[in-house]
């Protein structure tokens, strides 16, 4: 595998852990608010070989708890991704995987092989509105399957939604919460308009803190924990 970036140190991307972040190249969605357009359209200039990442990890064994694999959409890399995750686990690191949930079989295999410790899955919109939100054809059943696989797995997880006012209504967010009913953790992520895929979204905003808190209150019975970040 090749990667579009390596962030050597983070305290915020893997909850409670000291980690590094690797960025996979390519994505099957085109979310207008995406912060990594060069990964999505595969125009990233400097690529990092898998062997370089593993060499880096060999030198960080006592300094890092885990590795966050994000993208792009990591699961598009199928078996290559699973082999890479196994290599990381062999070195004794925890693995957090970020995913848009379009490849439930890859998630299932990673869980069954015990090569993932934390999964963060983006929920883009209610299932009925996915294609409008992500700008690509979507297999809604695959998304639904990923949600079920993650929720009924022994792995730590979170679901999260980027909240853009005008793109998702409070009722849409309530519908999402019903579709992940019983989830352990769900985060409402404030949209930030720096460096995004679709320049027209520069003018978009998220909801105010009070509006987000009102939404949080409305969905509090559907999920065990709902956070705003
Ligand atoms: S936000 Fe995630 S799923 Fe959407 S285009 Fe960007 S990398 Fe792909």
TrEMBL record:
InterPro entries named in the record: Aldolase_TIM, NrdG2, Organic_radical-activating, rSAM, rSAM_sf
Cofactor(s) needed by this chain: [4Fe-4S] cluster
Domain of life: Bacteria
Iron-sulfur found in the keyword field: yes
Signal peptide from the UniProt entry: none
GO molecular function per UniProt: 4 iron, 4 sulfur cluster binding; catalytic activity; metal ion binding
Residues in Radical SAM core domain copies: 13-222
Lineage summary: Bacteria, Candidatus Joergenseniibacteriota
Listed Gene3D superfamilies: Aldolase class I (3.20.20.70)
Keywords for this protein: 4Fe-4S, Iron, Iron-sulfur, Metal-binding, S-adenosyl-L-methionine
Name assigned to this protein: Anaerobic ribonucleoside-triphosphate reductase activating protein
Protein source organism: Candidatus Jorgensenbacteria bacterium RIFCSPLOWO2_01_FULL_45_25b
């Amino acid at each position: 595998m090749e990667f579009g970036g390596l962030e050597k140190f983070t305290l915020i991307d893997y909850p409670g852990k000291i980690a590094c972040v690797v960025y996979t190249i390519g994505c099957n969605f085109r979310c207008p608010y995406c912060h990594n357009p060069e990964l999505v359209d595969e125009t990233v200039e400097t690529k990092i070989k898998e062997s370089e990442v593993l060499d880096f990890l060999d030198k960080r064994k006592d300094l890092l708890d885990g590795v966050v694999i994000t993208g792009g959409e990591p699961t598009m890399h199928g078996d290559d991704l699973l082999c890479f995750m196994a290599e990381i686990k062999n070195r004794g690191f925890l693995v957090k995987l970020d995913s848009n949930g379009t490849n439930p079989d890859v998630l299932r295999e990673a869980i069954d092989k015990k090569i993932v410790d934390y999964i963060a899955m983006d929920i883009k919109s209610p299932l009925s509105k996915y294609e409008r939100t992500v700008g690509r054809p979507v297999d809604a059943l695959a998304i639904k399957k990923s949600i079920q696989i993650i929720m009924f797995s022994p792995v730590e997880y979170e679901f999260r939604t980027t909240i853009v006012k005008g793109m998702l209504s409070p009722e849409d967010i309530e519908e999402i919460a019903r579709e992940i009913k019983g989830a352990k953790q769900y985060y409402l992520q404030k949209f930030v308009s720096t460096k995004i895929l679709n320049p027209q979204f520069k003018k978009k905003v998220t909801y105010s803190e009070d509006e987000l808190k009102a939404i949080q209150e409305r969905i509090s019975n559907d999920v065990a924990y709902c956070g705003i970040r």
